[in-house]
Amino acid sequence: MRSWCLCQICTCGRHHCPHGTTRIYENSGVSCPTTEYLEKYPMHGNILPPQSLKPKQEFRACREKMEGITTFKSDYRPYEVVKQPCHVPEEYKPKQGKIDLGTTYKRDFKSYKVQPVAIVQPLERKQVKKGKLDTVPTYKDDYRAWDIQKSELYKPEQAYHPPTVKFGNATTFQDDYVPQEIKPRQSCKPSPVPRRSTVPFNGDTSHRLDYVPHELEFKLARPREVYKPTDRPFEDLTTHRCDFQGLAGDMAKICKPPCTRVTPHAPFAGSTESRESFQAWEVPPPGAKKVAEYVPPPGSMQFSSTSHLDYVPHPARRAAPIRPAAPRRSSRAPFQGRSTTKEDFPAWESCRQGLIQPQPQIPGPSGKFDGLSTFRAHYVPHELIPTASCRPFTVALQSAAPFDDVTTYSTEYTPKKQEVCPASYPSPPGYVFETANPQGHRFFRKMVPALKAF
Predict the structure, then answer these.
(1) Chain centre distance of CA 321
(2) 435: part of which helix (H) or strand (E)?
(3) Residues 6+ positions from 73 with CB-CB distance below 8 Å
(4) Which of 402, 375, 421, 38 is nearest to 217 (CA)?
(5) Please, which pLDDT band fits residue 249 given cuts at 50, 70 and 90?
(6) CA angle 169, 175, 179 (to 5 degrees)
(7) Contacts (Cβ under 8 Å, ≥6 apart) of 59
(8) Mean pLDDT for the stretch of residues 124-138
(9) What's the pLDDT band for 425 if we cut at 50, 70, 90?
(10) Three-state DSSP class for 298?
(11) CA distances from 345 to 54, 155, 159, 163, 341 (A)
(12) Less CB within 10 Å around the terminal CB: N or C of the chain?
């Protein structure tokens, strides 16, 4: 007899077999979902995982007494410290006698008599006495005045004079133009007063004329079905509850070492290695050096220098400036403001010329303007006839013919009975559970009805 899997029994495509444990965890009681890696992974021998070389985080407290010996204490050898002798300076005693201030420069230097340097000054110029200078320059002596006549002007004389007589020539426009009386144009704008029509309004439209009303059939009201609760208990088993199997394990252990606080009852020893090894030595204060008192030398101080002793003053005068004085020119003669431009171009009396305006040759219109145009002359007004409205009446049309509600869907539709997927039940009807493989597939066998013997 052939066995059927739950995936094959399902007709809606929504039900699948719950995947259980694989072969690796089949006998261990641990659940693991089926994966492609576990199915294709080759099995090896019983190989234990390598042990971790990481040391355990455990605090090992030593209960023995702690020795206070260090490498510094064991290797250090104390020596006797001898105080270094302090140097005492001798007391200063000035020597008796005079100081020899002679130097090699004073001994080897030979002094010479030096005369003062003569001042190089320009020779003094004698001032010329002020008087009238009667001299003739070379320009006046060589220049000869020539008798030059005045050149005549080459500017042409203005011989044009505007005419005083009225211009009497007429133009072609003035000869051909015939003046006409201007009339105001009549307005073509229609009057804003609405024109009411005496003809009744025709509201017939193509829709109203061509529409055939049909009588609607009475729609049957479908009775409302009363809800009937089922007698079977509610199955709240989900795929998550079917597939999920919790792993049994212990809670994670805390790696924090236990806090063991040591509280000794002995008093605290305040001695340290520095206090035991270090010994305070008395250090005398540093001695202050005595400074001898200042004694001024006897006698008076000489403020003369070599410059004061060797300098010889000479009588000298201040140098006079070489620049001559600029004499001022003062003339009382009247200023002559004549020039060739003023003599050749005298000012003429001129008057501004007035505007030359032509006098109108065409007399202005005197009568009323006749503004009649060709459009107004040929236009014939007609009476406006309003357009008849084609809008149908809003009254519903009734017909005695039955309403034709036949559609292609209603003629070709075949009702089918809704079937329930057999895999939705915990045990599909008509099937008997047979086995379940390690991959999690559940196989069922069809029930064959027993044949009665006649």
Answers:
(1) 76
(2) strand 431-436
(3) 273
(4) 402
(5) low
(6) 125
(7) 257, 258, 260
(8) 68
(9) confident
(10) coil
(11) 126, 11, 19, 28, 6
(12) C
Token pair recorded at residue 20: 């259980």
Distance of CA 414 to the CA centre of its chain: 68
Cα(17)–Cα(7) distance, integer angstroms: 6
Sign of the torsion angle spanned by Cα atoms 289, 290, 295, 296: positive
Please give the Cα distance from 245 to 32 (Å, whole number): 8
How, if at all, do strands 3-5 and 431-436 pair? Answer: unpaired
Q: State the average pLDDT over residues 202-216.
A: 84
What is the DSSP code string of 151-187?
Answer: PPP-PPP-------SPP-PPPHHHHH-----BBPPPP
Counted residue by residue, the chain has a size of 454
Structure tokens at 343: 């003599």
Question: Is 29's pLDDT higher than 60?
Answer: no
Whole-angstrom CA distances from 242 to 13, 16, 39, 126, 245 are 18, 11, 21, 143, 8
CA distances for 274 relative to 72, 75, 436, angstroms: 11, 15, 82
d(CA 210, CA 212): 6
Rounded to an integer, the average pLDDT of 318-345 is 73
Q: What share of the chain is helix, strand, coil (3-state, %, to 5)?
A: 15, 5, 80
Distance in angstroms (rounded) separating the CA atoms of residues 29 and 27: 6
CA 137, CA 143: separation in Å to the nearest integer? 10
Q: How confident is the model at residue 30 (pLDDT cuts 50, 70, 90)?
A: very low
As a whole number of angstroms, the distance between CA 110 and CA 102 comes to 15
- Which amino acid does the sequence have at 311? Y
Which H or E run includes 443?
A: strand 442-446
pTM as predicted: 0.20
| Per-residue pLDDT reduced to its tens digit, 269-309 | 677 777 777 777 788 888 888 888 888 888 888 778 888 88
The answer to whether the beta carbons of residues 41 and 32 sit under 8 Å apart is no
